[in-house]
Amino acid sequence: MKTALITGITGQDGSFLAEFLLEKGYDVHGTIRRSSVDYRERIAHLEGKPNFHLHYADLGDSMSILQVVSKVRPDEIYNLAAQSHVQVSFDSPEFTADIDATGVLRILEAVRLTGLADTCRIYQASTSELYGKVEEVPQNEKTPFHPYSPYAVAKLYGFWIIKEYREAYNMYCCSGILFNHESERRGETFVTRKITLAAARIAQGKQEKLYLGNLSSLRDWGYAKDYVECMWLILQQEKPEDYVIATGEQHSVREFCLYAFRRAGIELRFEGEGADEKGIDVKTGKVVIEVSHDFYRPTDVVNLWGDPSKARKQLGWDPSKKTSFEQLVNLMVDADMAKVAVERAGEQVRTNLAEYLEKGIVK
After folding, report:
1. Which CATH number fits domain 3-178: 3.40.50.720, 3.40.50.1000, 3.90.1150.10, 2.60.120.200?
2. What is the pLDDT of residues 56-69, one digit of tens each?
3. Residues 148, 300: Cα–Cα separation, whole Å
4. pLDDT surpassing 80 at residue 353
5. How far is Cα 233 from Cα 358, in angstroms, rounded to an integer?
6. ∠ Cα 202 207 213 (to 5°)
7. Among this protein's residues, is 131 annotated catalytic?
8. Among this protein's residues, is 189 annotated catalytic?
9. pLDDT of residue 71 exceeding 90
10. Phi and psi dihedrals of 125, rounded to 5?
11. What is the per-residue pLDDT for 294?
């Protein structure tokens, strides 16, 4: 039985990867941060399983990382923990650097100091944001990096320190340069989930309008559940290498909106350009999407498009046989339609109960 340690196990990718590795027969350990707020809903169904274990640790605390690595002595480490929101990185650049850059170094040093450098394989979750102000389209493993946010700059350090330890200490450590990957487990502040949740709420009368930034931004969107398989495959190769993980297809934010609202039962048409562009419900004529400058970034990445040829050839991971863009959007909208329906039902129960209490029907 192999032992895997996943940082960021409570996140979208961490929860899918934990499920995947458990199915492979791994003993799975994950790190979580101490909090008075319960944020473990993505992994709640795994707690109590005999081969699933949680440990308190934080990438900002080298001693906690060292202790967990020393105790677990993993065969594989998947570093998925990060301050992963690009916009937040402009507001909290120092915290982003500490976790996304120095945090990677803390893991590498923990492995080295515990005598696991020759046996433990390390996967680093890198990002397409490294390409930033893109210098060629599509982007592959040889495309020059031009990070365009504090998040991307911090992740670039993580990428290069992985490469340095691989070459300096002959450690098996590598990066997966993941392009945008989404799911029904995506956080609600990320643009894709923001769109699907708003589509569901607008369709069910719980929200009037959705405000977005640049509708023309282009992204390569895939399904997170498909991508964790590729993470695993990267660590199963004879020698460590870095790989682009992407679908090879590109879509705009506007197109994502069209598919999402259509799945929720609302046909859209867009009018205007730039900051004046609006999304209109064809049936009612109501404006349901508007552009807001509040969601523009100081420097904005507008054209990400991955070339997964190397992963397809060397890993046998073929994104064309995975979840399509339309299937991904539909899956996310369906989950949010169900979520909003449950919320509405709960609100109705509370309303009815309040009325019964007021009338003295129940006490």
Report:
1. 3.40.50.720
2. 999 999 999 999 99
3. 7
4. no
5. 61
6. 85
7. no
8. no
9. yes
10. -80, 100
11. 84
What pLDDT digit, counting tens, does each position of 4-40 carry? Answer: 999 999 999 999 999 999 999 999 999 998 877 778 9
- Give yes or no for residue 151 having a pLDDT over 80: yes
10 is catalytic: no
From 40, 44, 29, 132, select the one nearest 76 (Cα to Cα): 29
Taking phi over 0 as left and psi of -120 to 50 as alpha, with beta for the rest, 50 belongs to alpha
Evaluate whether 172 touches 119 at the Cβ level (below 8 Å): no
pLDDT given at position 302:
80
158: Cβ contacts below 8 Å, ≥ 6 apart: 100, 101, 103, 104, 124, 126, 175
Burial of 76 (0-12, 13-18, 19+ CB in 10 A): buried
Of 246, 66, 237, give the one whose Cα is nearest residue 139. 246
Single-letter code of the amino acid located at 160: W
Q: One of 127, 143, 192, 196 is an active-site residue; which one?
A: 127
- Annotate 94-105 with b (16+ C-beta within 10 A) or e (fewer): eebbbbbbbbbb
**pLDDT tens, position by position, 113-127:** 999 999 999 999 999
The token pair that represents 212 in the structure block:
């977005």
Q: Are 77 and 174 in contact (CB under 8 A)?
A: no
Considering 26, 131, 151, 165, which one is annotated as catalytic? 151
Query: In the structure encoding, which two tokens stand for residue 77, read together?
Result: 């480490």
Task: Give yes or no for residue 197 having a pLDDT over 70.
Answer: yes
Write down the domain spans for the chain: 3-178
- Which of 19, 129, 182, 184 is catalytic? The answer is 129
Strand order in the sheet with 268-271: 210-212, 287-291, 278-281, 268-271
